[in-house]
Amino acid sequence: MSDVRSVPAVVAPWVRTRLRAAPGAALALALLVVLTACLAGALPRAVDRYEDAGLRHSLAQAGPERTTLRATAPIPEGGVSGEDLDVSFSPEVLERQFGKLLPVVDGSVPVDRAQSAYGTSTDDSTAVLEPWLPRPTGLPAKVTLVAQSGLAGHARVSAGRLPRAPARPDGDEAEAAVSAATAEALHIKPGSVIHVPRLGGPLSVRITGVLAPRDPVGAYWSTVPLLRTPALERLPEPGPPQTYWHGALLLPPEATLAVLGSGRNPFRYWHFAPDTGGGQAHGLDRLRSGVASLESGPGLRRARSLTDPDLDVSSGLDDVAVAFGRLRSGISPLVGVAAAGTATVAAVVLLMAGGLAADRRRAELALLRARGVSLPGLTGRLLAETAVVAVPAGALGLTAALVLLPGARAGYAVAAALTVILAACAALPLHAVLAHRSVRLTGPREDMASVRPSRRRTVAELTLLALAAGAVATLRDRGTSAGRLVSLAPVLTGVIAALLLLRLYPLLLRRLARPAGRLRGAVAPLSLARAARTRASSVLPLLALLTALTTAAFGGSVLAGVAEARDHAALLTVGADARLDSATALPDGLAARVRALPGVRGVTPAAITYEATPTDGVATVPLVGVDPPAYAELTARTGLGAVTAGQLKGSDAHSVPAVASPAVARNYGIRRPFLVRLTDGSTITVLITAVRDRTPAAPAGDFLVVDRAGLPSSAARPTTLLLTGARPDAAALRRTAPASATVRLRTEERAGYADSPLQSGAGHVYTAAVAAGAGFAVLALLLALLRAAPERAALLARLRTMGLTRAQGRRLLVLESLPQALLAAAGGTLTGWAAVHVLSPGIDLTTIALASSQTPVGRAVLRPDAWSLTLPALTVVALAAGVAVTQAWWTTRRNSARELRAGDPQ
After folding, report:
1. Do 496 and 468 meet the contact criterion of CB atoms below 8 Å apart?
2. d(CA 498, CA 533)
3. 250: Cβ–Cβ under 8 A, 6 or more apart, which residues?
4. Which of 82, 589, 601, 824 has its CA 20 to 30 A from that of 306?
5. Which among 770, 782, 775, 772 is positioned nearest to 880, based on CA atoms?
6. CA 619 → CA 174, 615, 663, 694, 712, distances in Å?
7. Contact 864, 563 (CB under 8 A)
8. What are phi and psi of 725, to 5 degrees?
C-alpha cells in the first residue's frame, strides 16, 4: 500500500485576497492618496518657489548700489611714496587681499565672483577747468579718478583702445578711458586731455578709449553708477539751480599711485557682489546675520586682521532683507489660512474614505470578530491591506510634486506627503477598531436622533471653543503678527460652527416634522423623518463642507479686498481711468481727438498750475482750473471728492469760488478771500466755498480747484486731460498725445502694485489652495451620499412594494438630502460672514495688495464679499440636489430583487 502524504492546506494571503476581491475600492483609494499627497507635497514647494522669486526680485529691484558689500580702507595720513606703494598698495597686493577677504565674505553671504572687483578711487570729486567740457549753468565739470580691476573683461572698446599703465607710477601723466554715456554727455573723445588738479602739479589724463559695458546693470558697473553714467548734480544752495556734470575717469589698475597722490581723500576698496540668482528666502535670517557679522561683528574683525585695522564694511543688503522679511511676514499668515482649511478638508476626506470602506465591510469584520479574531490582529491586517495601496500611491504623488515644482526644499514636501500616507493607512483600521471594539451580533443604532453627545464630546467641543475664542481675540489684538493663529482662526471657527449645527440639526428637523405631518401625501413627512435619523457620523461631511465654505468665503473676501485696494490705489494715483499731463499748454482740439479714441467715454480738461503762491503764505499749492459741469460729473463718477457745479460758480465778481483740501482751508480760512499769485506774475482772488479730502485732478496732496473761466487767459489753457472709460486704448492714446506729454492709465498703475513675485505668487497659491479645498469638500459630499446609497436603495425598494411610485421615490431622495445641504450652505455662509467680520480688525491687506506702503490708499480693510459667501453655498446645494436626482433616477430603474433579499444589511 502506497504512502499517502498529507498535503497542507494553502491559505491565500489576506492582502492579496482583499485586493482581488475589491479592485475598484483599492484603485479609488490609490487615486485619492496620489492626488492628496501630490497637493500636500506641492504646497510647501510652491511657497518656497514664490518666496525665493520674491527675494531675488527684491534684490534685483534694490540694485547693486544697495546690495553690494563694500569694504573700504583709507590711505594713511601723509600719503604714500613709491616704495610703500610696491609693498602695500600695488595691484598685486590689492588682488592678494581680495583673495583673502573672499572666503570671509562668501562664508556669510554668497558672492558673485564675476561681478566683484577691487581698486582705488578718490572720495572727493575734482573740478576740471577744460574749456571744452560742458557747463550747464557755468560751473566747471568734476571728475573722479577710479582704478578698478577687470576693466578689459567687463567692457567692449567702442572707440580708441584700453588705457595702459603709466611709464612712471608717480609721474604727471596717465591714461584713462570713459564709458560711452560719459563720453556723450561730457563731449569726450579719444585723444582728449583732461588736467586734474592735485598736490604738486596737475595730472594730465589722456583719454585713450570709449568703453561700452558688457553688462550695464551688473554689479561691476552699477555698484558705483558713476562709472557707467555721469551725473548732473546740483549745488545744495538756495536760489536758481546751479548744476554741473560729474563723471568718472577709468584708469588702469597700475595707475594706483596717480589716484593715491591726487590729494582728494583716496581710498582702497573691495566690492563683493552678492549672488542674487541663488537667493533663498528660508535663509533670510542667516543672510541678515552674515551681513551684521561683516559690518560690526566677528566677520569684520577677521577682515581687518587680513587687510587693514581701519577697514570698514557697509551694505544696504540688510535693509533689503528686513523689508522683504516684513513683506513676507504680512503675507504668509494669510496664505496659511487657505493651507489650513484645505488640509482640514483633505484630512476629513481621508477619514471618510476609511469610514466608507469600514461600513462596506461591516458584516465581514463583525463576522471575523465573532469567530475570534483579536482586535490587534484585525487592526494589523487592515493596516497592511491599506498600506500596500497607500504607500506606493503616496510615493507617486510626492514624486509628481517634486518633478512638477523643482528648485525648492524637499523636506517639508516629504513630511506633508508622509502625513497623508499615514492618515490614509490609519483611516480604515481606526474606524474598524471604534466600530468593532466589542463583539456584537447586530450593529448599534447610530442616528442623530437617538445618540446623545457624550461627556467626552462635550469637553472636546468646549476645548475647541476656548481655542477658537483665544485665537480670535489674539488675532484682533495683535494682527497678522499673531503668526499661526491667523491661519487657524477661520478653521477653528468653521469647526465650532459645524459642531454647533450638529447639535441643533435634529431639533430643527423635529420642529419641521410636525407641520409637515399635516400635509397631504407621505413624501414630505417621510423625507423629514429620514433626514432627522441621519447617522451621527455625518459630522465629518458637515465639518468638511463648513470648513471649505468658511475658507472659501474668507479667501474670496481676501482676494476681493486685494483687488478693491489695488483699484482704489490706482484711482487715487491717476485720478481717473486715464490721464494725460503736460508741463505746457496742450494743443487746441486735442480733447476732441482723444474723445474719439476707442474705449474713451468722457474727457475733462484741466489747467493745473503747480506752483501757485498765496500772497500771505510761503508754501506753493497746486491751482486747478476746470469746467464746473464736466468736473462735477467726473467727481461723481470717480467718487473722489464729489462737488457740484454750483460750488465752483459764483456771482461775486471780486473773487473766484474754490474747492480746497483740508490743509489749505485751515491755513487760509473758509469764506475769506485771499490772493493767489500765478507763475506768470498775475493774481486772482480766491474764496474757499467747500472742502474735500481728494480731487481727481490732484488726487495726492493739497489743491485749490477753481472755475477755469475765472483765470487769466495764459493760465486757463488746459495742461491735463482726465479720461473716463471702460478700457481706453493705451497705444492709441500715446500716439495721439504730444511727445512732451505723459500718459498714465489706471489699469497700468493697478498692475504695478503687484510687481513682486511674492505678492502674485501668494495670490496664485491662495487661489489654488481654496480651489483644492472646494474640490475636497465636493468629494466629501459625494462620499457621504455614496455611503448612504445602499441604505437608500433598500428603503426605496421596500417602499416601492408598498405602492410608492417612481416619481415619489425621486422626490423622497431629493428632499431627504436637501436638509443637510441647506444646513451646510446656510451655516457656511453665516460662518464665513462672521469669520470675516470678527477677524477683519486684525488683518491688514495693504501688504499683500500693494507693492509699496507709500501708496495713497491707506489701510486696506478686509470686508465680506457677497459672491464668495453665496456662490460656494449655492454650489453645494445644487450639487447635493443633482447627485440625489441622479441616484433616484438610477435606483428607480434597477430591479428591486437584490435590495429585498433576506439577510442583507439594512
Report:
1. yes
2. 18
3. 146, 147, 148, 151, 163, 176, 177, 178, 179, 211, 227
4. 82
5. 782
6. 51, 10, 12, 19, 22
7. no
8. 160, 160
Which DSSP string corresponds to 572-634? HHHSSSEEEE-SSPPPTTHHHHHHTSTT--EEEEEEEEEEEEETT-SS-EEEEEE-HHHHHHH
**DSSP tag of 310:** T
At which residue does the C-alpha cell 478700457 appear? 727
Cell numbers 489699469: residue: 747
User: Rg of the chain's alpha carbons, rounded to an integer?
Assistant: 39
CA distance 467 to 459: 12
Region of residue 158 (left: phi > 0; alpha: psi -120 to 50; beta: else): alpha
SS3 assignment, position 886 = helix
CA distance 58 to 761: 14
CA distance 207 to 189: 7
| Class of residue 877 by CB neighbours under 10 A (exposed 0-12, middle 13-18, buried 19+) | middle
Phi/psi region, residue 427 (left: phi>0; alpha: psi -120 to 50; beta: rest), is alpha
Segments of the chain with pLDDT less than 70? 1-12, 14, 76-88, 169-170, 238-240, 261-264, 438-454, 475-476, 478-486, 509-510, 513-514, 516-524, 526-539, 616-618, 650-653, 754-755, 851-859, 891-906
Greatest CA separation for the chain: 141
pLDDT at 645: 87
pLDDT (0 to 100) of residue 40? 94
CB 67 within 8 A of CB 319: no
Tell me 452's DSSP state: P
The neighbour count for residue 886, using CB atoms within 10 Å, is: 12
Rounded CA separation 625/605 (Å): 9
Q: Please name the residues in contact with 740: beta carbons below 8 A apart, sequence gap of 6 or more.
A: 582, 583, 584
Burial class of residue 521, CB neighbours in 10 A (0-12, 13-18, 19+): exposed
Distant-in-sequence, close-in-space partners of 363: CB < 8 Å, separation ≥ 6: 905
DSSP assignment letter at 679: T
Cα torsion through 664, 670, 674, 678, rounded to 10: 40
CB 541 within 8 A of CB 784: yes
Task: Give, for 144, the enclosing helix (H) or strand (E).
Answer: strand 142-148
State how far Cα 170 lies from the chain centre: 57
Task: Give residue 491's identity as a one-letter amino acid code.
Answer: V
- In this structure, what C-alpha cell is assigned to residue 775? 474640490
Give the C-alpha separation, 64 to 67, whole Å. Answer: 5
DSSP 114: G
Q: Hey, which residues does 722 pair with through a beta bridge?
A: 579, 604
Type and span of the H or E element at 73: strand 69-74
Q: How far is CA 510 from the centre of its chain?
A: 48
Cβ atoms of 50 and 757 closer than 8 Å: yes
Nearest in space to 560 (alpha carbons), one of 196, 840, 328, 895:
840
**Phi–psi pair at 66, nearest 5 degrees:** -100, -30
pLDDT at position 423 is 92
Sign of CA dihedral 718, 719, 723, 727: positive
CB atoms within 10 A of CB 439: 13
The Cα 161–Cα 893 span in angstroms is: 92
Query: Where along the chain do its domains lie?
Result: 18-48+325-566+756-892, 69-314, 583-740
- Using an 8 Å Cβ cutoff, are 532 and 814 in contact? no
- What's the grid cell of residue 839? 477677524
Helix (H, G, I), strand (E, B) or coil at 699: coil
What's the distance, Cα to Cα, between the start and end of the chain in Å?
Answer: 57
Q: At what angle do helices 362-370 and 375-404 cross, to 10 degrees?
A: 140
Give the whole-angstrom CA distance, residue 461 versus residue 466: 9
